[in-house]
């Protein structure tokens, strides 16, 4: 049980770090032209009129990414608490951590699919090369990390002692 819980804690922590870094950086999308380059993220900078005109897919991506970060934080917190027997319900910490980790993975996946599909379908310009950048890929990396954390937490729950039974 301990190796599964430790690995789940590691995967969940890495997933949480990945989504937090992806959320806080502005390198989701790059554009390179003949004389200059530009990058953008989920939090546009500029005057108030520009901020009001943010596309709907950006709002969806922001919302589901923040939800995923909060769920990932809860998952990691529950795993930490499950390591301290006096603070957790016997055997229930890894189960609830697994549920929240899977919910975090689903939230990130929704956010990333919406962002990817909307950016992919935007028309390009012949002299400007556009591509996804490293913050975008960190968002995608958090999906398998949260899925791994959920699976390993579930493994820790299933292999742990059942409440009410004496272990030999």
TrEMBL record:
Transmembrane feature ranges: 7-30, 50-81, 93-114, 134-154
Similarity comment text for this entry: Belongs to the PMP-22/EMP/MP20 family.
Keywords carried by this UniProt record: Cell membrane, Cytolysis, Inflammatory response, Lysosome, Membrane, Transmembrane, Transmembrane helix
Membrane topology: Multi-pass membrane protein
Protein encoded by which gene: NKG7
Function, in words: Regulates cytotoxic granule exocytosis in effector lymphocytes, thus acting as a critical mediator of inflammation in a broad range of infectious and non-infectious diseases. Essential for cytotoxic degranulation of natural killer (NK) cells and CD8(+) T-cells and for the activation of CD4(+) T-cells following infection. Plays a critical role in CD8(+) T-cell and NK cell-mediated cytolysis of target cells and contributes to the cytolytic activity via the perforin/granzyme pathway by enhancing exocytosis of LAMP1-carrying lytic granules.
Principal location listed in the UniProt entry: membrane
Cellular component annotations (GO), alphabetically ordered: cytolytic granule membrane; plasma membrane
Pfam families, alphabetized: PMP22_Claudin (PF00822)
Protein location: Cell membrane; Cytolytic granule membrane
InterPro entries xref list: PMP-22/EMP/MP20-like, PMP22/EMP/MP20/Claudin
Coiled coil regions, renumbered to chain: none
Record GO biological process: defense response to protozoan; inflammatory response; killing of cells of another organism
Domain of life: Eukaryota
Organism: Rhinolophus ferrumequinum
Name listed for the protein in its UniProt record: Protein NKG7
């Amino acid at each position: 049980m301990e190796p599964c819980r430790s690995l789940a804690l590691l995967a969940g922590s890495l997933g949480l770090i990945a989504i937090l870094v992806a959320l806080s950086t502005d390198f989701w999308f790059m554009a390179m032209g003949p004389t200059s380059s530009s990058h953008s993220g989920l939090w546009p900078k500029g005057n108030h009129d520009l901020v009001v005109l943010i596309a709907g897919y950006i709002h969806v991506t922001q919302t589901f990414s923040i939800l995923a970060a909060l769920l990932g934080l809860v998952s990691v917190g529950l795993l930490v608490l499950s390591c301290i027997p006096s603070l957790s319900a016997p055997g229930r910490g890894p189960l609830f951590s697994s549920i929240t980790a899977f919910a975090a993975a689903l939230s990130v996946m929704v956010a990333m699919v919406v962002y990817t599909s909307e950016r992919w379908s935007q028309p390009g310009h012949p002299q400007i090369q556009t591509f996804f950048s490293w913050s975008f890929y960190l968002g995608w990396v958090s999906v398998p990390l949260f899925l791994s954390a959920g699976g390993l937490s579930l493994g820790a729950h299933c292999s742990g002692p059942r409440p009410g039974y004496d272990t030999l």
